[in-house]
Amino acid sequence: SRSAQFRTVVALNLDKRQFQFEGICIGKILTEKHGQQGFGYDPIFKPSGFETSSAEMTMAEKGTISHRGKAIQQLIDFLKEYKS
Description:
Blueprint: E1 3-14, E2 17-29, E3 45-47, H1 59-65, H2 67-81
């Protein structure tokens, strides 16, 4: 199996409680490198629903599926609605 996922969890301690926000990007590990953009695993990771590696995607495309971005957006949405 070459399936893979990248996961980010952001924890917020607020009012003596802890809140966690998780972002996941699911895909698969390629057998060879593709593309020159990005860093780290980008040339060998192909996100689900895409025909290209992360290293072949534009920053805008990557931004729509970013595991970090998803977790941070959940945190932002939570803080907008939070009432202590």
